[in-house]
Amino acid sequence: MGHTSEQKWCNVRFVLVVVGLFLVLYIVRPPTLSTLLASCPPCSCDCSQESILSLPLDVFNNSLEDCGKDDLDMNEEMKKDIISLLSKEINLHKNVTGDNLEHTNALIMSAKRASSHYQKETEKCNMGMEACEGAREGAEAALIEERKLSAMWETRAVELGWKDK
To answer: Across all residues in the chain, what is the average pLDDT?
Structure first.
């Protein structure tokens, strides 16, 4: 079931036409996202570029009094002084760090338990290997001794007239 050269070129042309149509539609269509963003009214907040920590508290509150004036939670947060906000954030960082440390310690203890378990299993395996090696050496020595005895008896039997068939 081979395709002829003409069928392959027909398929390639079809794919190129479809890709070309998609490119034309992509370029010509109205940009929906940028249209939506352009219709959004500008923000009324007048936030300066200076660092928040370098501003006096009253300048900070006055320049941002329009931002979130209808949001009660935002108003409460804006009335708090910067030191209490920073101390709250430091405490949150301490809590997160403490939680991370506890989790890390738990993982370390789990790894130590697993390591100890595997070391015990390794020691058992090594003792078993040593026992097997000792038994193999003993069996090998017994086999050598048995072969010597068999050779001696065969020699005596041949001397006494035994013939192997």
So the answer is: 80
Q: Is 161 left (phi over 0), alpha (psi -120 to 50) or beta?
A: left
pTM > 0.85: yes or no: no
The CB density around residue 60, as the number of other CB atoms within 10 Å, is 19
Question: According to the model, what pLDDT value does residue 31 have?
Answer: 57
In this model, does residue 117 exceed pLDDT 60? yes
Q: Return the number of other C-beta atoms located less than 10 Å from residue 2's C-beta.
A: 6
1 pLDDT above the threshold of 70: no
Under a CB-based contact definition with an 8 Å cutoff, are residues 48 and 55 in contact? yes
Contact call for residues 46 and 65 (beta carbons, < 8 A): no
Rg (C-alpha) for the chain, rounded Å, is 44
Interatomic CA distance for residues 72 and 78, integer angstroms: 10
What is the CB-side half-sphere exposure of residue 150 using CA atoms within 13 A? 6
- The two tokens of residue 150 are 């068999």
Higher pLDDT, 76 or 12: 12
Two tokens at 55? 């501003």
Per residue in 79-111, is it b (16+ CB within 10 Å) or e — as a string? eeeeeeeeeeeeeeeeeeeeeeeeeeeeeeeee
